[in-house]
Write a structure and sequence with these properties.
By secondary structure, the chain is an alpha+beta fold. It has 19 helices and 16 strands. Helices cover about 45% and strands about 20% of the residues. An 8-stranded mixed β-sheet has the order 1-5-6-11-10-9-7-8. The protein has a 5-stranded mixed β-sheet with strand order 13-12-14-15-16. A 3-stranded antiparallel β-sheet has the order 2-4-3. β9 and β10 (about 315-320) form a beta hairpin. It binds one RNA strand through α3, β6, β10, β11 and α15.
Length: about 450
RNA sequence: GUGGUUGUAGUUCAGUCGGUUAGAACGUCGGAUUGUGGUUCCGAAGGUCGUGGGUUCGAAUCCCAUCAUCCACCCCA
């Protein structure tokens, strides 16, 4: 036998039955996005490396898939660069394109590029695959889809409110119990300021992000290891120990952060957001979580993360406000906010919890059995008529044994089979068989179409 | 990038102490049944035991390397 074919690490094929389920998720999410006035865009799978590099931190740059230049790319490389074997120097000479790492940065590029054609605020959604050269593991792939919604060109907190409503709407429809965790980068910045470690905001947030997972002691150890002073760690303790409802936490923070202008601004934003959301009667729980940091370093305001309550899989949706993402591309002072739904993890949850709907409109409703040439000709006009009426139908393409044709219908879960052979042609009729009950009826072409239209 | 796990038929897995011709179930195909399926019965096809090297009279089995895989960490959806 020839060598067994395979696909690259961390990628997957999707079978017809998987696609039906995936489309259920995508369609549902799109429906909600449109409901709030968002419009679709698409961008290319590959971007110029200059667009991508440096936007996701050092770690992110390493995880970018880079595309080799075409043609005789190696002869153009200088001998020193080759001899040095330094990837940072060599890579720019042999690769100038990369696969997109997320949808937000390409979106920022899009906005800057078409700024004169776009009407702001610009509300767009985008559902496309992204690629990361990460080691795959559970719930983690090298190619996966993101479903992004962003609104750019508006500072209003109303956008944050709407995004939480969208999250609530999507997961209510999917029947997944979730909790939306909300924090604000300005609060985190304020904390770093109060504690006296302004410079170390990233180290501090990354460390406290792990609080729930590794515990207070290890977080403190990691902070010390990163070079945060003992005094700062000590000052941090009361903040990490904050308890109570989201509103109560915010009130306490107001006091703690009273000397930090940024921090107070963040608290103010949080209070307003929670007050609006409180009036909306959401199905989803929302809570202020000070340990929520989120890795991507372009966030500047609110940050969101959604976790499933009944399933351990990490976050299934996340996002936040970024005040200056387009600045790097030459369009400063444009604020945006958005969230991204992780379709693959949502799929895993729905599959495990058996929450996919049983019936879908995607599959074939009726199969015409094939008895031979004369019978084919007899069936074709009716088949065409059924399709005109929007009924998914097909005819078995070969004159095969009944058993094979029936098995085909079973495997594809086709609920009806039409039998039309010699005797039906004589009687100018069709036999409709219900594959679930086994019941058979003799019908005229008109009756057949009428019955199947339901 | 770091640590570990597992690689045997299309799939899930057996395979004893290293022993001669590597098994099962499911799936596939054919037949019982030339116009009636899901159940049943019979039969068949399907293998470089991940790959390369080593030890041995003899390796799916032991050793080394390599590739792949899954899991955890870093990070993240």
């Amino acid at each position: 036998m020839a060598q067994k074919p395979s696909i690259p690490k961390g990628t997957r094929d999707f079978s017809p039955s998987e696609m039906v389920k995936r489309n259920y998720i995508f369609d549902l999410i799109k429906d909600v996005f449109r409901l709030y006035g968002f419009q679709p865009i698409e961008t290319p799978a590959m971007e110029n490396l200059s667009t991508l590099m440096g936007k996701y931190g050092e770690e992110g740059d390493k995880l970018l898939f880079k595309i080799l230049n075409s043609g005789d790319f190696i002869s153009k490389v200088s001998d020193e660069a080759l001899a040095e074997k330094n990837p940072n120097k060599l890579t720019p000479q042999i690769s100038e394109k990369g696969l997109r790492y997320d949808l937000t940065v390409p979106f920022a590029r899009f906005v800057v590029q078409y700024q004169n054609e776009i009407t702001f605020p610009f509300k767009r959604y985008q559902i496309q695959p992204v690629w990361r050269a990460d080691r795959p593991q559970k719930g983690r792939y090298r190619e996966f889809y993101q479903c992004d919604v962003d609104v750019i060109g508006s500072n209003s907190l109303l956008n944050e409110v709407e995004l939480v409503q969208i999250i609530d709407d999507v997961f209510s429809r999917l029947k997944i119990n979730t909790v939306v965790k909300i924090n604000n980068r300005k609060i985190l910045a304020g904390i770093a300021e109060i504690v006296g470690e302004n410079e170390r905001i990233t180290d501090i947030t990354v460390a406290i992000d792990k609080l729930e997972k590794i515990g207070l002691e290890k977080v403190n150890a990691e902070l010390a290891e990163k070079g945060v002073s003992d005094l700062a760690i000590e000052r941090l303790q009361p903040i990490l120990a904050l308890e109570g409802s989201s509103v109560e936490k915010a009130a306490q923070l107001e006091k703690i952060l009273e000397k930090s202008e940024t921090g107070l601004k963040g608290v103010g934003e949080i209070e307003k957001l929670f007050s609006y959301l409180g009036q909306l009667g959401l199905n989803t729980d929302i809570e202020l979580d000070l340990t929520l940091a989120r890795g991507l370093n372009y966030y500047t305001g609110a940050i969101f993360e959604v976790k499933a309550k009944d399933f351990e899989i990490g976050s299934i949706c996340g996002g936040g406000r970024y005040d200056d993402l387009t600045g790097i591309f030459g369009l400063p002072n444009v604020s945006g906010v958005g969230v991204s739904f992780g379709a693959e993890r949502i799929y895993d949850i729905l599959a495990q919890l058996n929450l996919f709907p049983q019936k879908t409109a995607d599959t074939t409703k009726v199969l015409f059995a094939n008895f031979g040439e004369k019978e084919e000709a007899y069936c074709l006009p009716v088949l065409a008529e059924l399709r005109k009426n929007g009924i998914n139908s097909e005819i078995f393409p070969d004159k095969a044994k009944m058993q094979k044709q029936m098995t085909y219908a079973n495997k594809k879960e086709i609920p009806f089979v039409v039998l039309a052979g010699e005797s039906e042609i004589q009687a100018n009729s069709f036999t409709l068989k219900n594959m679930e009950t086994g019941e058979q009826k003799s019908l005229s072409a008109g009756e057949l179409i009428k019955i199947l239209s339901f």
